[in-house]
Amino acid sequence: MSSPEALVAGLVGRGLTVACAESLTGGLVCAALTSVAGSSRTVRGGVVSYATDVKAAVLGVDAERLRETGPVDALVAEQMALGVARVLGADVGLATTGVAGPGPADGMPAGTVFVAACGPWPGGVTSRRLALPGDRAQVRAATVDAVIDLLGEQLAVLAPQGE
């Protein structure tokens, strides 16, 4: 499991910047990263795209896809990650979208979450579907951990700067 400290160090060590697109986490991912001393060397910022129309209007998520699947979808998460990297001029984009609960939303049960990361690694963008247990706060916290872990896994394939 990656920590925000390890992630910030890994990004800085590779000369990469990061931006976060968040829905159900409402800024918690960006807050976790910026809680680390020295994070200003890598964190570009974040977009809290809680409303579905913001995902399309600000991040460039395909509006037709949003109509077809709703916002809780792997491709939506991937497009959010790509969009925030583009909008904020970052090398790496992270995204979270899903249902924190307590009840279902958009036809999905509480705890259904998608996280995504895009960056300069093979394949460029990756996403993961999660079925998280717990109450609203637990689902949101586990989502932050999951997207940090996903990025940590992707960074592991990249050599640090200068190697």
UniProtKB/TrEMBL annotation:
Residue ranges of every copy of the CinA C-terminal domain listed in the record: 5-154
InterPro entries membership: CinA-like_C (IPR036653), CinA_C (IPR008136)
Protein name: Competence protein
Domain of life: Bacteria
